[in-house]
Amino acid sequence: MIKKILKGLGRLAALSVILTLLYLVNLFFMKPYSIDHYLGKELVFGLMDSPEAMTYIGVFDRFNWLTKHNSKLSIPQEDDIEKDIVDLEKSIKTLYKYDDSKLSDNQRITKKIAIFDLENSLKELKEFPYLDYPLNQIGGIHLNTVEFMSGMHPIRNKSEANDYIKRVNLIKEVYEGVLKDLEKQAINEIYPPEFVYGHVIKQLNEFINYSYDDHPLYSQFMMKVDKLELSEEDIENLDQEIKKAIDESVTPGFKLLLGFMKKTQKNANKNHGIWSQPGGDEYYKLRIRTYTTTDFSPEEIHQMGLSEVERISNRMREILTSLGYDTAKSVGEIMNDLNENPDFLYADTPDRKEIVVNDYMKMVDEAIEVMTDYFHTMPKSEVIVKAVPEYSEQTAAGGYYQAPALDGSRPGVFYANLYDIKQTPTYSMRTLAYHEATPGHHHQIAHSLENDSLTMYRRFGYRTSAFSEGWALYSEQLALEAGLAENPYDELGILQSEIFRAVRLVVDTGMHYKRWTREEAMEYMKSNTGMSDTEVRVEIERYIVWPGQALSYKVGMIKMLELRKRAMDKLGDKFNIKDFHSAVLDHGNPPLFIVEELVDEMIEEALN
């Protein structure tokens, strides 16, 4: 069988297949001899259960003829939660069997990370299986499916184009599975707030009523197909097939979701915080533990936020005073005036988005050059800048990052939201570029993906926004320290970004713990940051449907700065910023309590 498969392949391709098959045989069928082997095996099994994950990673695409993953989607099943609980309990039991005295230092760290992660996941599934919002305005299944197909599915040849159509034909089946979960939520009387219904119903109606040319699943597909060297007959056939798939699968699927939203809209939650849902208070504590990787209480984080808002506001006032602004106004009022000042805004011309993207790219390139002095190695993967797709820009965040493919076939992407010109005042652009690209998300994520010394689990098996978002926010300050924001207005942009994250600590706990309304949270954010009304609304509504995630940024940054100061105080002249960054970045994406152990270890080694 294998000989038949390999027949006709080039020597290098055949060797690659043989090595991969041998590795998988060893991974799947040999008795686990180490915790790394066990977690690696579990990770591969998990990947094979998720065709989307296999596409996302990229390296599996060369074996798509064998795996067929690029023509599949994950279809929700009735017993998914029960199966996941059984699997998690089994994995946790296995991990505890590994004797710490027989593990290496790195393996002991791996064990701590895996148990921390799996126990949190198990608690959520057992106690709060339906306390999320599968349909929401920023990360709902209806948006995620379209974004995955438009942005992640490769179309490099006719076969991959056909796989795209096969996937699109499965979308209705995916949504039928989601609908069953939504109905279970309804049985448990869990409904999102009214504003979520408004946004999602509008989005679904737009998808349903799109013309083909406006539909992202059609327009993005045909744009890529037109770049292939195909015959006119092939292109016409693909054109007809994707239209048929949209008519028979996508649109009916969207109508199913729309029907549920309309039917249940009368039951919309009158409150905004997760406290108002069944078990919401305990669920929020678990979200804090999961996202911040700490045991801080909601009250502790709320007070931390208030303190940081005051500190950062004072520094911003110093700069604004030096620039001659009216000291009788609050910092937020002055920053809001700056947002409205045409001197800091792009002209709303037809080519505005292209101009802004090019300007962002120049900032990223400059940062890459400067940052070589702060790290032992720089990522090999390229990073590019794109505008957020029009179909999601009205509700998407100001910017976000998409990781590169592991095999280098797809670069990292910094997506900038250019929907509202007031979202892109020039003084705030540098900090967003540093956060999303270099030295922020792209540097950290690509560095981990390219780190061959990491085990499979440490490279792909665990993610925490306390680390990744904490690092990205730390990176903004690092860029300032490196001289990349010498203009005082650029420093104001960085401080505005930091106070924005500090405000998050206040408003997230305010809504989900102290029972603030959406409007109270919006007013607090507006008055303290000077962000535009559009930005404030989008952000506050994001925190409502994603409880706790917004806390991770500032909590992570505070920990990293605390650890850097500890290293500088203890090492004095021996302190090396490159060594500190390696201690933080060379170990994947660990919880903050692991980062602290690693930095303390670096300090001890430098002293001895």
From TrEMBL:
**Xref: PROSITE patterns:** G6P_DEHYDROGENASE (PS00069)
- What is the protein name stated in its UniProt record? Lipoprotein
Q: State the InterPro entries in the record.
A: DUF885, G6P_DH_AS
| Single GO MF annotation | glucose-6-phosphate dehydrogenase activity
Q: Name one GO biological process term.
A: glucose metabolic process
Highest lineage ranks of the organism? Bacteria, Pseudomonadati, Pseudomonadota, Gammaproteobacteria, SAR86 cluster
Source organism superkingdom: Bacteria
| Residues spanning the membrane | 12-30
User: Pfam families under this entry?
Assistant: DUF885
The organism named in the record is: SAR86 cluster bacterium SAR86A
Q: Which UniProt keywords apply?
A: Lipoprotein, Membrane, Transmembrane, Transmembrane helix
